[in-house]
Amino acid sequence: MAITKETVEYVTHLARIELEPKELEKLSRQLQGIVEFIDKLSGLNIKDVLPMSHALPINNVLRDDFPRESLPVQKALLNAPAKEGSFFVVPKIIE
Q: Would you say the C-alpha torsion 41, 42, 44, 47 has a positive or negative sign?
């Protein structure tokens, strides 16, 4: 697929973008380069390449998760601006 200057002019007209002749020429060359690169990629044999989520072998560092006692209710509510029983009181935002 070739990206011509006329194709770029047509698309810029549809997008209501105004380009100078130099910009139009440069954009046409850049888009043609992108299309050529995609054509190269589509010609590659990737049959034996395993899918991956990242190009580098990155592992997340996680700490061990051990169960422990949680914060007591009274301590959690200690600095609450408003409370009712063992619950936080918040302003109503949905009518």
A: positive
Cβ count near 45 (within 10 Å): 6
> Which SS3 state, helix, strand or coil, does residue 1 take?
coil
Q: Is residue 17 part of a domain?
A: yes
Report how far apart, in Å, the C-alpha atoms of 74 and of each of 14, 58, 85, 89 are. 64, 42, 10, 14
User: How many domains does the structure of the chain reveal?
Assistant: 1
Averaged confidence pLDDT in the chain: 91
How far apart CA 52 and CA 21 sit, in angstroms, is 42
Q: For 38-52, how does the pLDDT look when each residue is reduced to its tens digit (9 = 90+)?
A: 999 999 998 998 888
Average pLDDT over residues 76-89: 93
